[in-house]
Write a structure and sequence with these properties.
It is built from ten helices and four strands, in the order H-H-H-H-H-H-H-E-E-E-E-H-H-H. With about 210 residues, it is mainly α. About 70% of the residues lie in helices and about 5% in strands. Strand 1 and strand 2 form a beta hairpin. It comes from Stylosanthes scabra. It is a multi-pass membrane protein. It is found in: Endomembrane system; Membrane. Keywords: Membrane, Transmembrane, Transmembrane helix, Transport.
Length: about 210
C-alpha cells in the first residue's frame, strides 16, 4: 500500500472503521529504531503508516499525558466530570436512566422526597399523549440540570486554570505522537499489517457486491 497516495480524509476514515480493541504494540518495538526520513514524500508516507499501525500506543500516550495534566489541577478533574455530565444529560436515554437511579436511591431514605422527584404527567391532547414530551430529571426540566452543571464546570475551569493546563498537555501529547511517527522507521510488521488491512478492505467491498 502506497501511503503517499492516502489522503488525510482516508486516514481518518480508516481509523474510524478499524478495530481499536487491539492491544498496544510492545515498548521494545515502539522504541526500536529511529531514522530521519530522506524526503518529504517519505516522511508523509511514514507518518501515515505509523499513525495507523501504532494508533493504540499513541492513544494511550495522549491519555497518560492528559491524566498527568489533570493531576496538577485537582479541580480540573471535577470540572471535566461536570462538563461530561452536562453533555451526557443531552442524551434522552442517559437523562432518563440517571433520573431513575437517583430517585430510586432517594426513595430508600425519604419516600416523601422521592415522590416529589417524579416527572409530571404527560399532557393528553384529544385523548392521545402529546408527541412533544419534555425530558425531566428528578422532577425538574432537563435544561435546568444542563445549565447548572455547565455553569459549575465553567466556574471550576476558570478558578483552577485547568483549560490552559489541559491544552498544554494535549499539545505535548500530540507533539510527541507526531515526532515519534515521523522518525520511527516502519518495520516489516507494520508493512504486513498494512497489506492485511488492505486485503480485508478489498474482501469486504467484494463481499458487498
Amino acid at each position: 500500500m502506497d501511503w503517499g497516495n492516502v489522503t488525510a480524509e482516508d486516514l481518518v476514515d480508516a481509523l474510524r472503521e478499524v478495530d481499536w480493541s487491539s492491544p498496544p504494540r510492545p515498548l521494545s518495538e515502539f522504541f526500536s529504531r529511529f531514522t530521519v526520513p530522506r524526503s518529504s514524500s517519505k516522511w508523509n508516507s511514514r507518518l501515515k503508516c505509523n499513525l495507523y499501525y501504532y494508533r493504540t500506543n499513541y492513544f494511550l500516550l495522549i491519555v497518560s499525558v492528559l491524566i498527568l495534566g489533570f493531576l496538577r489541577r485537582p479541580l480540573a478533574i471535577v470540572a471535566a466530570l461536570l462538563t461530561a455530565l452536562s453533555i451526557a444529560f443531552l442524551n434522552d436515554s442517559f437523562a432518563g436512566t440517571f433520573s431513575e437511579r437517583v430517585t430510586r436511591t432517594v426513595r430508600q431514605f425519604s419516600p416523601h422526597l422521592a415522590a416529589k422527584m417524579r416527572p409530571p404527567l404527560t399532557p393528553v391532547i384529544r385523548g392521545r399523549p402529546s408527541s412533544k414530551r419534555a425530558i425531566y430529571i428528578c422532577g425538574r426540566p432537563r435544561w435546568m440540570f444542563v445549565l447548572m452543571f455547565s455553569s459549575a464546570s465553567f466556574i471550576l475551569w476558570f478558578v483552577s486554570a485547568g483549560i490552559l493546563t489541559v491544552l498544554w498537555a494535549l499539545a505535548f501529547g500530540l507533539l510527541a505522537t507526531i515526532l515519534h511517527a515521523s522518525f520511527r522507521t516502519p518495520n516489516l510488521k507494520a508493512r504486513l499489517n498494512t497489506f492485511r488491512e488492505e486485503f480485508r478492505a478489498v474482501w469486504r467491498n467484494y463481499s458487498e457486491l
